[in-house]
Amino acid sequence: ARLERLLSNLLALTDITAGRLQAALEPVLLEPLITRIVADFQNRSAEHTFGIEMARMLPPAEADPDLLEEVVRNLYENAVKYAPHGGRVLTTAEVRDDAVVIRVTDEGIGIAPEHVARVFERFRRVGGDNRVRGMGLGLYLCRGLIDAQGGTIEASSPGLGQGSTFTVTLPIARGWTTGDHA
How does strand 99-105 pair with strand 152-156? Predict the structure, then answer.
């Protein structure tokens, strides 16, 4: 499964670089998608606890479910990878204006303030721990996948040793309002 995801990521990176990535947008309910991914990660990482806090009556996001799942999985992979001694990974989702905002917050090694703006660059690894494996493509891939869906992704961190938060903003699904989903 990991090899299949790696190959899928490499193909998506090729499409992003060539400007060929096409998102198949549809209404996506976030709670079932995130709950399923969290269950997978809870089974794989006993050192971490995963929490989910969703706003009541959260409308669906206008997204490509496969691309969004890849983004969320990448964010959890990083949260686990950069918090090797465990900790909490909290995912929240709420409505802000005409968008759904998803935040993944970890208690990992954090990001130095001078590096936050560069975490989405290709081949950029801003963590100082050489024991953490990776090529610096995961967050670059996330940015391309979110851009293709008409959304944004941002990183923030209070500093080294204080964890990180990644914020994904996607439009509310067309034709839905905040009160349509109960």
Answer: unpaired
Nearest to 81, CA basis, from 30, 135, 144: 135
At 60, phi and psi to the nearest 5? -70, 155
Are 22 and 134 spatial neighbours (Cβ–Cβ below 8 Å)? no
Tell me 145's DSSP state: H
CA 8 to chain centre: 16
* CA atoms of 70 and 75, how far apart (whole Å): 9
Phi/psi at 81 (nearest 5 deg)? -65, -40
pLDDT tens digits, one per residue of 137-178: 789 889 999 999 999 999 999 999 999 999 999 999 988 765
Distance (Å, rounded) from C-alpha 165 to C-alpha 134?
19
Contact 70, 141 (CB under 8 A): yes
- Three-class SS state of 155: strand
Tokens 């290709």, residue? 122
Nearest to 68 by CA among 142, 154, 119: 142
Q: Express each pLDDT in 88-127 by its tens digit.
A: 999 999 999 999 999 999 999 999 999 988 898 876 555 5
For 80, what's the count of Cα atoms within 13 Å in the CB-facing half-sphere? 18
What is the spatial distance between Cα 160 and Cα 111, in angstroms, rounded to a whole number? 5
